[in-house]
């Protein structure tokens, strides 16, 4: 019995370390220690909904959904394709994004402000012309807002469906208000502060959205060609399926991702729950001396 517990604990530790390394990068342990142990005021107290949502394994599904949804704005997609290095260094981009989310959600107010200033400086330099001849600038408040609302909606919906502790509707409103603080700091002039405002803002962008060749290429890369070893691809495929099925119908039509009604209405959500529980289990070990 003791040997079985040690074996399970070892598997759990190795899986958790592998996942954390992928998401947080080589500096992950040092960053985690700094973010969570440095004394000082935070933007968000321990009771705030943003901490519940951003600390949950459902973020794995929400993050992939956000990338697919964000790619539908042709100027946002052009900026990402030309400047982010998502194909050449996809894990590096993921690690930078996850670190930014962790710092602004859990870190000190000073570290959060510094992280925002670094991102704003990068956005200022990202300018160009899309393949269709349209100019873009990553610091454009209109583009910043699109990225923000697509991300917030994705994290919210993934947590609502797969979160360990789904929130009340008023707490999801409060989550949107929490994310508005970060968006304002990044340069979004008037981000939504309730879920109803978030949905209205998303709807307002609909006429601008379309699936460009770059967008469809990104979807193929994210869904069919992930930079993962073969052994990890089945689990990733199930995460991706849950991200796709949580997209709105209009977004799926634009991306050319057809529905498979019975399979995705019953089987896919079950796999999402199993996978997020497995991620949660591996990345949140029990207290010393406890057996789960």
UniProtKB/TrEMBL annotation:
Domain ER-bound oxygenase mpaB/mpaB'/Rubber oxygenase catalytic: 53-281
GO molecular function: oxidoreductase activity
InterPro entries assigned: MPAB/Lcp_cat_dom
Organism superkingdom: Bacteria
Name of the protein this chain belongs to: Uncharacterized protein (DUF2236 family)
């Amino acid at each position: 019995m003791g040997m079985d517990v040690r074996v399970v604990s070892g598997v759990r530790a190795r899986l958790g370390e592998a996942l954390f390394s992928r998401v947080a990068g080589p500096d992950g342990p040092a960053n985690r220690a700094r973010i969570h142990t440095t004394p000082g005021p935070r933007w968000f107290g321990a009771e705030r909904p943003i901490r519940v949502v951003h600390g949950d394994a459902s973020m794995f599904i929400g993050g992939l959904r956000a990338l697919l949804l964000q790619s539908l704005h042709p100027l946002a997609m052009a900026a990402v394709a030309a400047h982010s290095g998502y194909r050449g260094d996809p894990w590096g981009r993921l690690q930078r994004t996850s670190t930014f989310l962790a710092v602004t959600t859990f870190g000190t107010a000073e570290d959060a402000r510094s992280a925002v200033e670094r991102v704003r400086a990068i956005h200022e330099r990202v300018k160009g012309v899309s393949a269709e001849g349209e100019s873009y600038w990553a610091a454009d408040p209109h583009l910043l807002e699109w990225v923000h609302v697509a991300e917030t909606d994705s994290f919210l919906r993934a947590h609502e469906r797969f979160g360990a502790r789904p929130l009340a509707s008023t707490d999801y409103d409060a989550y949107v208000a929490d994310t508005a603080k970060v968006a304002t700091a990044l340069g979004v002039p008037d981000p939504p502060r309730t879920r109803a405002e978030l949905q209205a803002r998303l709807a307002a962008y609909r006429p601008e959205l379309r699936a460009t060749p770059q967008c469809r290429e990104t979807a193929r890369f994210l869904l069919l060609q992930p930079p993962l070893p073969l052994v990890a691809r089945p689990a990733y495929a199930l995460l991706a399926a849950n991200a796709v099925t949580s997209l709105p119908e209009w977004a799926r039509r634009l991306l050319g991702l057809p529905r498979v009604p019975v399979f995705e209405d019953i089987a896919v959500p079950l796999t999402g729950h199993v996978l997020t529980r497995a991620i949660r289990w591996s990345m949140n070990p029990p207290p010393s001396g406890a057996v789960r």
